[in-house]
Amino acid sequence: MSDDVSPPGRVFLLRHGETEWSANGRHTGHTDIPLTDAGRAAAGRSRHSLEFLRGIDAPPPARVLCSPRSRARLTAELAGLHVDAVDDRLAEWDYGEAEGLTTPEIRERHPRWTIWDGPWTGGETPDDVGARADSVLVDARKLTADGDVVLVGHGHFGRVLAARWIGLPATGGVHLRMDAAAVTVLGDERGAPRLDAVNVVQPE
User: Is residue 92 annotated as part of the catalytic site, yes or no?
Assistant: First the structure.
């Protein structure tokens, strides 16, 4: 592929729908929490976001990869996607001791804590998550030679993917929003990675 020619496809990031924990602000990494009824409905509506962003007459994605968590796999199904492979690298940030806790609860021990600033006791650091994101993106870029690629996953990891796509450090994800069942589009302009759309959510 020539460096001055954009690939045929783009990378679409789809975050899973709402869960009870995400609705309550509890950090949900490896814990497998199901979608709420509202989350299932929003996941279904994300099909229309994908149709709008890809084009109503677009062919099926060349490849759909999904996090191993059931909330992501069900979101993909409700969005009308056929998952080609479950990829463990698409799992959410490993929060370590912050798993299941809200930010105010964590700040009782670590004032002014954020996932971007740490500490990351027992979990992944931004460098860890950034390296995992880079590995995913190397493969996704190759797959766009055959068309659009959809990665179904999670909020914080999705924000890191978007940040790394445009050359920001993993902590640059703090500047990007990704709500439940939102779609973000990673594009390319003559070899220069760009964000074509961020946090597109289909209204009720």
Answer: yes
Higher pLDDT, 98 or 5: 98
Q: What is the DSSP string of 24-56?
A: TT---SSS-PPBPHHHHHHHHHHHHHHHHHH-T
144 half-sphere exposure, CB direction, 13 A CA radius: 23
Please tell me the predicted confidence (pLDDT) of residue 122: 98
Amino acid at 69: R
DSSP type of residue 155: H
Q: What pTM was estimated for this model as a whole?
A: 0.95
- Active-site annotation holds for 20: no
* Mean pLDDT within 90-98: 98
Catalytic residue among 16, 27, 154, 156: 16
Of 203 and 40, the one with more pLDDT: 40
Of 18, 27, 92, 99, which residue is the catalytic one? 92
User: How many Cα atoms within 13 Å fall on the side-chain side of residue 193?
Assistant: 16
Enter the tokens of residue 7.
Answer: 């690939």
